[in-house]
Design goal:
The protein is of the alpha+beta class. The termini are far apart. It is 47% helix and 17% strand. A hairpin with a 2-residue loop joins β7 and β8.
């Protein structure tokens, strides 16, 4: 069956990947996973989601780096939900505001757009190395940037970076091993490997430390948590950025669904398997039609009123 596909990129392999569309059903499940505030559930969901969305690609998602996953999710966000996110911040009311906002509440709401395409461009052009290889006394250890978003300690980070090990003529593929099995293998490696891995990761963070991934155009307004978000490889920043990009109010989605089904006869399946971007377009088109019809109705009623108030032409002048 033919279907719409759009391009993404696997940065660690320097190649294009094709993606399927994100459905409204999947989007709601994503938001629910974010709402559970359980990082393990979120990571499992993201791996399964990307596996579903990747089109005819042989790579195992759990072997992708966290940077790969972030980039692909941002492509999904841009194509299937919208290329611009509007964030609302509660800030201190500026001096030029008067009345209730400045004297009573002392807070004002500002809306600041974030362009997904700008963020994608910045992430795709970061001068970072995605893979490493260390050799020592006949032992070669190959690995990548971390694959998960959240970690408990640096050993957990190092274990997650490992891809394979070669010792003399023996090759060990760690990619499909369980985390516990990989940890056991890691403890058999020379003690010098852990510092080498952590130094590699620190070097990547250092190379981008003066180039924040997300920059809000605040126009001089002081935002509650600052106007920049830096990228870090393993301190949980990537997972929190993903939440920031996808989270929204479930109530708003359900309200839109209810309106489309109750008032405009959309079927539940049609809503579930449309993309969030398509539902937004449908809703906006319907709203514009309703506003146009309301305006035309008001103009017609006003025209009738004017006709009723016209003086009869057969009255003689006074």
């Amino acid at each position: 069956m033919s279907e719409f596909l759009y391009p993404s990129y696997i940065l660690s392999e320097d190649r294009k990947a094709l993606m399927r569309e994100l459905t409204n059903r999947q989007y709601k499940a994503f938001i629910k996973c974010i709402a559970t505030d359980d990082n393990e559930i979120l990571e499992t969901f993201i791996d399964n989601l990307l596996s579903d969305l990747l089109y005819d690609d042989p790579i195992s998602v759990h072997n992708l780096t966290n940077i790969d996953k972030l980039y692909m999710l941002m492509c999904v966000r841009s194509y299937c939900i919208g290329p611009t996110i509007i964030y609302t911040f509660n800030v201190d009311a500026p001096d030029d505001l008067s009345g209730e906002a400045r004297h009573e509440k002392k807070k004002a709401k500002v809306e600041i757009p974030l362009s997904m395409n700008e963020v994608l461009n910045r992430l795709g052009n970061y001068p970072i190395e995605h893979k490493f290889s260390f050799s020592e006394n006949g032992l070669t250890v190959n690995g990548t940037l971390p694959k998960k978003f959240y970690y408990t300690d640096v050993v957990d980070v190092a274990v997650d970076t490992l891809s394979n090990i070669t010792f003399e003529d023996k090759f060990i593929n760690l990619s499909d091993m369980s985390a516990q099995h990989r940890r056991e293998v890691f403890y058999t490696l020379p003690s010098s490997i852990l510092p080498l891995i952590m130094k590699f990761l620190e070097n990547q963070s250092e190379s981008i430390k003066n180039d924040p991934l997300i920059v809000f155009d605040s126009k001089g307004i002081e935002l509650p948590h600052g106007d920049k978000i830096d990228l870090h490889m393993y301190n949980g920043t990537i997972g929190e950025i993903i939440k920031l990009l996808f989270n929204t109010e479930l109530k708003e989605l359900y309200t839109t669904e209810y309106t489309l089904m109750r008032r405009f006869k959309f079927t539940f399946d049609a809503i579930e398997y449309s993309t969030p971007a398509e539902l937004t377009v449908y809703y906006e088109v319907i709203q514009r039609d309703l506003e146009r019809e309301k305006k035309e109705r008001e103009e017609q009623e006003g025209s009738k009123g004017n006709q009723m108030m016209q003086a009869p032409k057969n009255l003689s002048p006074s």
